[in-house]
Amino acid sequence: MVRERAVAGLPVRAVEVGGTTTSVVELGSGDPLVLLHGGIECGGVTWAPVVRGLATTHRVVVPDVPGLGESAPVENLDAGSLGRWLVRLMAVTGLDHPVLVVHSLVGSLAVRAVAAGVGPAVRQLVVCAVPAVGPYRMPVKLRYLAVRFAIRPTAANAERFDRFAFLDRDAVRARDPEWYDAWAAYTQERAGTPHVKRTMSKLIGSATRRIPDVELAALSAPTALLWGRDDRMVPLSVGETAARNQGWPLHVIDDSAHAPHLEQPERFIQALRDVMSPAG
Q1: For position 278, what pLDDT does the model report?
Q2: How many Cα neighbours within 13 Å face the side chain of 263?
Q3: Neighbour count for residue 94 (Cβ, 10 Å)
Q4: Homologous superfamily of domain range 2-275
Q5: What is the dihedral of CA 95, 83, 200, 143, to 10 degrees?
């Protein structure tokens, strides 16, 4: 099964989170670390290349957001519903004040939820390539490629999208061709699922709206930014603006674009370790 190959042998279980069946990968022990994927059809398996490395020092929890991956959908995925789901997920999995790492479109909803006080209490928030933290207009080419893949989720359209998402798609695949092909096939498979299509459409339509600086300033948890230097989807300038306006540290990962956890997993792990403050 393509999903099993994409999970790469990581332990997976299904839990009930507020009535929503949620698929969760869990590995390791130590301080809790939650990796929240972006707007991608496959859900949390996109973090697979960095889970084992991070699990040497942390208890890593990687859920599939409602409506993506193997998790059941909710009626309306917005900041409020995502925040409440995260609170319940923390309770179900026994997490207390984790470091929360958020990425891309889903990250926009998560940051908005935590800032508004409807999300979980976190020890630290790490924001990766999240469009809503600064001035953002979706690139025309990205919108075109996303719509094309949504209408016809073929292997060719998936590759076109990935070549825009990654700085060097072929180099990413060369790291682990078997895993990459399984990940790509699983993403393509989920992209043809009606509720996944609806969830992705909702995210594209709503999760790029900028969070006002006054709301970002309300974040009480220490917050840091991680960005790929050559991100074409959410340009580095978005992160630079947030860093300047909010005083958040910005860590830039070279030789990567929108998904440094896939493009430069070792550098991503090291950058995240540098960012995370000691528990206490």
Answers
A1: 53
A2: 22
A3: 9
A4: Alpha/Beta hydrolase fold, catalytic domain (3.40.50.1820)
A5: -110
